[in-house]
Design a protein that fits this description.
The complex is a heterodimer. Chain A is an all-alpha fold. Chain A contains 12 helices and no strands. The termini of chain A are far apart. By secondary structure, chain B is an all-alpha fold. Chain B contains 15 helices and no strands. In chain B, α1 runs antiparallel to α15, α4 packs across α12 and α5 runs antiparallel to α11. Chain B is globular and about 60 Å long. The two termini of chain B are about 25 Å apart. The chains are: A mainly alpha, B mainly alpha. Chains A and B meet through α4, α9, α11 and α12 of A and α5, α6, α13 and α15 of B.
């Protein structure tokens, strides 16, 4: 028990939770507005690559983080154009973008760093000389802000309206497409930020380093029932479980059992065993104006 | 103005998408200082210009035919199967397990047994999503995605902790009686390529899907469910049972996809063998508009890309083809939406 409560264990848990939490909060913005963003996996990956590259060439960590965010926004912009403007299937678009991101990060990794599997080593957050972990602080702030924005602001109300009932929102003069674009772009920014953390934490980019975290983030959002606080709790739970297996590697519990936890929980929650899961009513459905 | 032919409009989306994606890919190639024309010529001539290349292309296309069929079959029932990747993984492991467990059986029993094992394992895995949908109404898209990861973990546990041959990362080899022969050994054609008899199984699966959907009462019910679930229920069909069956059969097709690698090529199971065939299958079904024979053509096209990437790897990183795949899918779903407004869909 004592081992569990050490500072290292807590820090390790939080470290693992950050790249789940940021894209998970991103997913809340996107899905509250009615757009499923499976592309978060690719967004994390692109964010990590852009952050590593930006940091490597300028030596400036903050610039690198900005690059990560921009990369995330760009991928989510494509997702928005395809699914909101062209009203194409959101799942297929997300999968295509994940394939695209996997390819393009390796392509440029090979071109810029001479290896398609990893980048050069980059400086990390320690160069900022902050007395706290920047990403940890950001995560907490973003969590609070997200909760506030979604439930207490006019934009949040509109976002939820276009996700629940776009026809009604439209008839009240709300620009459905514009609100949905904003939701998806925010999710891209947060996903990109999560990716930047991956690169900073590991001091490099490695191919496929998102390793399914985008999907776990979506799972956490579902388990958290599309609520930012619920999503955060689910992310923390996954972080704890993973940290636990790292701490007790020789405990005899196969790591695969912990790995499947988020996915099994998601299925159980979706089946309605733990209260009712209510996704936004228009989640996943492109809005087509009737004329 | 003469109305454009329906099939021209059907083909227009994919053709424009492919050309446009080659242009975008060309820009990327130029960006890293290579000549796009040279790269593309090399890509197409080395894949289609000799029988070895063609054999490689057809080898890469084989699992894509089956995962494409899987997604298409579910689509016909109005279900979206994102789970072909997991079903393929589970099926491949089941085929391998059968092949290295029942080593004393003669080939005439063991090969059919491997085929059935692959099909059943995939069917069972997809059936879970079908059951969850029928029983609890939970959406198959999320559940199949989750089941993909669970499949990977289950198989990874079985391979790493139970069946791994020491000092390797794969399972024991299957019995020689479980091997699906390579065409170059049988016919002397496609010399050196791993193109094997599982392609015939894939083609048979296409015919089976066509026959089931077009010629049987079961297929009629599947289509009705796909067109309008309420109407199907009103007509007295047991739509819950149909949903489970539809998902299971779809999963079965994907489960057969492992035969190509396991029984036809490496003769053991190894993680990471699928190279995303389950996800690419979604694109294959989509572009082929769920037509089982068009699926073969589209799968071959994706096979060209996949093998083509290896042929140009000395000029550009082979991931150029992964990028192309992503762009093609994005463009196709955009254009399909555009053109569909101009077509009264008679099938799909």
């Amino acid at each position: 028990m004592q081992e569990l409560l050490t500072i290292t264990f807590v820090l390790q848990t939080l470290r693992i939770t950050i790249p789940y939490l940021l894209p998970s909060l991103g997913a809340v913005y996107s899905e509250k507005g009615g757009v499923v963003n499976i592309a978060l996996e690719g967004i994390l990956l692109s964010g990590a690559f852009a952050a590593a590259t930006g940091t490597f060439y300028t030596g400036n960590v903050l610039f690198g983080i900005l690059c990560g965010v921009i990369a995330g926004v760009l991928i989510s912009l494509i997702h928005s154009i395809v699914t909101i403007t062209f009203k194409a299937n959101q799942i297929v678009s997300g999968i295509a973008l994940n394939i695209f991101a996997f390819g393009i990060t390796k392509f440029f990794c090979k071109f810029l760093f001479g290896s398609s599997s990893n980048s050069e080593r980059i400086p990390g957050l320690e160069t900022l000389n902050l007395p706290f972990n920047l990403f940890l602080l950001l995560s907490v702030v973003i969590l609070a802000v997200t909760y506030f924005v979604i439930y207490k602001t006019r934009f949040g109300l509109r976002l939820r309206a276009v996700g629940e009932n776009p026809e009604a929102a439209d008839s009240l003069g709300i620009n459905v497409s514009r609100i949905r674009y904003i939701g998806v772009l925010i999710s891209g920014a947060l996903g990109g930020l999560g990716g930047a953390w991956l690169a900073m934490d590991q001091h490099s980019f490695t191919d496929g380093m998102s390793a399914g975290r985008g999907y776990i983030a979506l799972a956490a959002m579902i388990i958290g029932k599309w609520n930012p606080l619920g999503a955060a709790a689910a992310c923390l739970l996954f972080g704890l479980a993973e940290s636990f297996t790292l701490q007790f590697q020789d405990s005899g519990i196969p790591t695969q059992f912990i790995q499947v936890l988020p996915y099994v929980l998601t299925i159980i929650v979706l089946a309605g065993f733990i209260g009712k899961a209510n996704p936004p009513a228009a989640d996943g459905i492109p809005y087509e104006k009737k004329d | 103005m003469k109305k454009p032919n329906k099939y021209v409009l059907f083909a227009a989306g994919p053709v424009i998408s492919i050309i446009l994606s080659l242009v975008i890919g060309g820009l990327l190639i130029a960006l890293i200082g290579q000549n796009p024309i040279e790269v593309y010529i090399k890509l197409f001539s080395e894949t289609l210009g000799n029988t070895y290349g063609i054999g490689q292309v057809l080898f890469k296309a084989t699992p894509l035919v089956l995962t494409g069929l899987s997604v298409a079959f579910a689509f016909r029932a109005g279900l979206f199967n994102i789970g072909a990747e997991g079903q393929l993984t589970i099926g491949a492991f089941a085929s391998a397990w059968t092949g290295f467990t029942f080593v004393s059986l003669p080939w005439i029993l063991l090969i059919p047994l491997c085929v059935i094992a692959g099909f059943l394992a995939g069917a069972l895995w997809a059936g879970i999503a079908g059951y969850l949908k029928a029983r609890f109404g939970s959406h198959e898209v999320i559940n199949t995605i989750m089941l993909n990861f669970i499949a990977l973990a289950v198989v990874s546990y079985l391979v790493n902790n139970v069946y791994m041959v020491p000092a390797t990362i794969h399972t024991p080899e299957i019995s020689p009686n479980a091997v699906l022969l390579r065409f170059d050994l049988i016919t002397g054609l496609f010399k050196g390529s791993p193109f094997n008899l599982s392609f015939v199984i894939a083609l048979a699966a296409c015919c089976l899907m066509y026959y089931m959907i077009q010629k049987t009462p079961f297929g009629y019910r599947i289509k009705t469910l796909g067109y309008n679930a309420n109407a199907a229920e009103y007509a007295g069909m047991n739509i819950k049972k149909l949903t489970v069956y539809a998902m299971a059969i779809a999963g079965g097709f994907a489960g057969l996809g492992g035969l190509n690698f396991v029984n036809g090529y490496k003769h053991y199971f190894e993680l990471g063998f699928s190279e995303n065939a389950g996800y690419v299958g979604i694109a294959v079904a989509l572009i082929a508009r769920n037509n089982p024979f068009a699926i073969v053509l589209v799968a071959v096209f994706f096979g060209i890309l996949e093998y083509g990437g290896l042929t140009v790897n000395t000029l550009v990183p082979k991931e150029i083809v992964t990028i192309l795949q992503g762009i093609i899918i994005l463009l196709i779903i955009m254009f399909t939406k555009l053109f569909d407004k101009r077509i009264k869909l008679t099938n799909t």
